[in-house]
Amino acid sequence: MIEEINEDEIKKLCCNVESNASTTKWLNGSQEILVTHNVTETCYRIENAGRYDHGNYTCISENIVGSGSVSVVLKVNYKPVVPYLHDIFDAINEGKTKKICCVVDSSPSPTSTRLVNGSQQILVTHFVAETCYTINNISRFDQGIYTCIAENIIGIGSITTVLKVKYKPLVSTTHGLVEEINEGAKIKLCCYVDSNPSPTSTKWLNGSLEILVTLNFTETCYSFENVSRYDHGNYTCIAENIIGIGSITTFLKVNYKPVVSIFHDLIEEINEGDQTKLCCFVKSNPTPTSTRWLNGIKEILVSHNVYKTCYTIESISRYDQRNYTCIAENIIGIGSASIVLKVKWRKTSSSIDNPYTLVSIVKEDLFTLPKDMSKSVGFDKPEVSSSHDLIEVIHEGETKTLCCFVDSNPIPISTRWLNGSQDIYVTHNVAKTCYTIQSVSRYDQGNYTCIAHNAIGNGSITTLLQFKSNYYVKESIQTIVIVVFLAIVAAAVAGKGMLFQNSIQNITTVVRAVLENRDISQVSVRHSSTSSDDDSNASVYLDDGYEHSYTILLTNNRGEDEHVYLNPTKTSNSANSTSFENAACGNSFELTDQTKTHCEANSGEENNESDT
């Protein structure tokens, strides 16, 4: 007989006996749990049935004649119970294999058993007492809270285990794999460590150089207050624990302006006629957008987006010597380097069987050479030349550039331009020296001398600048008109009619001839004239008591009398006196402050002196 009861319910087991003077007992299995005497009914009461009350219950009655018994199987139904087969906190190293099992004790059998990780169901079984889940090659991502849930018609039972996976550090950063920054800025490199257990140490390395170490920290930062181009490179954060090592690398890319280098001496000496190659090398980030070679201030070569730029002079000459500068530029800034190219040459007239060259020569070196050896090896004082005439005309307001060229070996120590005796411009170690007058005036006229000096001696050349005013033609016409006027007055005073007429005709011819040379057909002249020995622009005004202007009309006719000419000359007595000669008359007269006129006519009359 089977009696079924749910857990926690009350159950009463009774047996009835038909005999006299008997003893009745209830046994649970073999264990006596209740005894009565001389009663016909014996009951065993279970107040709060539990799963452990499950089993065989037997009622035995005895008297003097014999015994009798009856058995009942008590079946207690209860919800599932899942015992702990693992620690509440179970730890395993990453990469191992883990088997998670749950064994269910329930009556009746569980209708379902589920294994979940957090809220995610990973395994379900039905009507079985044991359920297992295997994780091969466990990782840090498999760690979590695993729960086994069993269910039957009575209720639900469960158990939970926290699975911890031990793993080496996982290092991360908020920066990119390449971090770009301009030189001079600030930056902080930080790394974050995920590990179980915590890292025992975390280090920052620049290349292979250890620059920072921390202990038991999951965040480590290294700061740059003022980034330079030398901070450019790989930076690695390394974290370590008892399981292993983890790391991450950031490449710090520092942008900086170009650094230019030239693999030559600062002063490079080369023989005339040789080939030379000037190369500059650029270090910059980013790549230089342009690299230029300059000869002085003149651009001679440009390249783009390259780190090496070379300029070749196939056959170098003395005029190629000067400063050469390589300038590189990118978006950050500009860098440059310079070299002084010195050219050594020999004079074409010199020759010896075994010539030699001094790397650098000073005047004292010449005393150690044999007699006349300095000339035989081509050393001589400078020869100075110019592309100008010895006399140069300059016009008011224009720009005038005076250049001199120096041929010397050794090269000139200094080259100077002098205005008169005054130094106005000096250069050193160059073969060409130019001096520019921006806006010429009459005060700029005079002698300009270029003097070059080397260890042997000096050489020079002089150019005379003559000033020509824009008013020169006008002033020359005024002078002629005054001369004509004075000649007419002198002739009138003489009282010779024929002479007077002849003089006017001859003077008109002179005026016409002079003006034809200046391509002037009509000239308007005020009552003034310019005539000065010291200054061609100085003005002399005539005061004859009249205020009027006059005009001389000229014709381009060369067929008139050319026997009469006007020849002004200075006398020793007065700088301002002028003498004139009349070819037709055969006489001459002189104009001074007291002008005298003499003319021998056919009548033999003599003219009196007259004031003008």
From TrEMBL:
UniProt superkingdom: Eukaryota
InterPro entries: Cell_adhesion_signaling, Ig-like_dom, Ig-like_dom_sf, Ig-like_fold, Ig_sub, Ig_sub2
Record membrane topology: Single-pass type I membrane protein
Chief localisation class: membrane
Ranges where the Ig-like domain occurs: 1-77, 80-166, 169-255, 258-344, 382-462
Spans through the membrane: 476-495
SMART domains, per database record: IG, IGc2
UniProt keyword list: Disulfide bond, Glycoprotein, Immunoglobulin domain, Membrane, Transmembrane, Transmembrane helix
GO cellular component, one term: membrane
Pfam families membership: Ig_3 (PF13927)
Subcellular location: Membrane
Protein name (Swiss-Prot/TrEMBL): Ig-like domain-containing protein
Organism listed in the record: Mytilus galloprovincialis
